[in-house]
Design goal:
42% of the residues lie in helices and 23% in strands. It has 422 residues and is of the alpha/beta class.
Length: 422
């Protein structure tokens, strides 16, 4: 295979070269513009770094595809972002591989997957022969392949389908899509594509195929309705995306966690507040919020330095986290030295009792604060608020009331708590 490696970092190019040189002939480029000039007719695949000096990897993809190049492309990225991966695939990336996962096996698998995927999708667009001829090499692919006749019967399936799902070809062929347990969760949409999709139009859907052992397998399915000798078929190329879904969920969780303290961040808090506001409105229950501020935190930073300040934030978050009592309650870093605690189904008395519990927890922790006018230890001020009034109101009213209460607690000398009804 002839691979074009596009990476501005010499040491990383050398590392990729060592991983691939036994199986591949490599050409190298440092910029996107240089790489576009080095593409040759026999180039097998492009392995491109997301962060290039003259353009992003996504911009490289856009330019490559605009030139009519149908080359398989694997995008390597240190930015493990669902948005980056989704944008790259929209612009024509066949595989997106996080750099931390790059080793010889994963690189080769990504390259082969990109090559096979591009070949299969090209065949779907070009071929007009029978599905079994279109996919004469399909059994060598790790992607799943199956084809449906005009009545929804399974007329073809490859070995990867057998291996991945645990059904033999004999069990699959001839059975009706709507009657086979494998397709319980996607049968309706696949049959709809068979009846309504335009001829030779490539469409993509996601769903779950049910494996022989009953476990669902998250799957991405590319389908095309084709006509052979006057008869319509639906041909499909599917891949198990369990790993991708797991990575996306991991990234989603990271996006909702505060990197410094490890607890929920402001984004997670605001999403949860909106959910709990709607839930409380439906149930007619109360909702409580505590806003917490570390007293004289600026003086702490000025005296001990920001690394010590970060350690203090982590310690306070840890103590508050251990003090949480119910799984439905949420502790989040609200911003800077402020924290927020959301307490569903909690009235004013319960909110004040829990706020006192948090203050006492921190006092017992006895974290030193050498620059605090309030005392020798780290302390917190808390503003509490609750509401049972949701009609024609926004959850911002609860936040505003707790914020006023917090201001009053700090004005009263700090290391205390105040309450405001929302």
């Amino acid at each position: 295979m002839k691979i074009l490696l596009v990476d501005p970092n010499l040491s990383e190019r050398q590392a990729s070269r060592q991983l691939l040189e036994d199986d591949c002939a490599l050409r190298e480029a440092e910029t996107g513009a240089e790489a576009l000039k080095l593409i040759e007719p026999d180039t097998t695949c492009v392995l491109v770094e997301y962060a290039l000096p003259d353009m992003s990897g996504v911009e490289f993809l856009v330019q490559l595809r605009s030139q009519g190049q149908d080359l398989p492309v694997v995008l390597l990225t240190a930015e493990e972002s669902h948005d980056v991966a989704a944008r790259a695939r929209q612009c024509g990336a066949d595989e997106v591989l996080p750099k931390r996962m790059a080793n010889a096996e994963s690189l080769r698998r990504a390259i082969l997957g990109a090559v096979n995927r591009r070949a299969l999708e090209s065949n779907l667009r070009r071929e007009r022969a029978r599905p079994e001829l279109i996919y004469r090499l399909i059994d060598e692919s790790e992607d799943l392949f199956f084809a449906l006749g005009r009545h929804g019967e399974i007329v073809e399936a490859n070995l990867a389908t057998e291996r991945a799902l645990g059904f033999s070809k004999q069990e699959l062929l001839g059975s009706q899509l709507s009657n086979h347990p494998l397709f319980d969760r996607v049968a309706g949409r696949l049959l709809d594509r068979l009846r309504s999709a335009n001829l030779n139009e490539s469409l993509r859907l996601e769903g779950e195929l049910i494996q022989a052992d009953g476990r669902p397998a998250p799957t991405e399915i590319n389908v095309m309705r084709v006509r052979v000798s006057g008869e319509d078929f639906l041909v499909a190329v599917a891949r198990n995306i369990s790993e991708r879904k797991a990575l996306e969920e991991h990234l989603r969780r990271l996006s909702l966690n505060d990197a410094l303290t490890g607890i929920a961040n402001r984004r997670a808090f605001e999403a949860r507040l909106a959910d709990e506001w709607r839930r409380a409105a439906r149930a007619g229950s109360s909702l409580a919020l505590l806003l917490i501020d570390i007293d004289h935190f600026k003086a702490y930073n000025d005296t001990l330095g920001h690394p010590a300040g970060d350690a203090c934030l982590r310690a306070v978050a840890s103590r508050l986290s251990t003090a949480m009592r119910r799984p439905e309650d949420l502790l989040a870093r609200y911003g800077g030295e402020e924290f927020a605690v959301l307490l569903p189904a909690t009235d004013s008395a319960g909110a004040m009792t829990f706020a006192q519990h948090l203050q006492e927890t921190l006092r017992r922790a006895a974290l030193p604060h050498p620059a605090s006018p309030t005392g020798a230890l780290v302390s917190i001020s808390i503003g509490a608020s609750t509401t049972q009034q949701f009609l024609d109101r926004s959850h911002s009213t609860l936040v505003a009331a707790a914020d006023v209460a917090l201001y009053e607690a700090k004005a009263a000398g700090r290391d205390c708590l105040r309450f405001r009804a929302a």
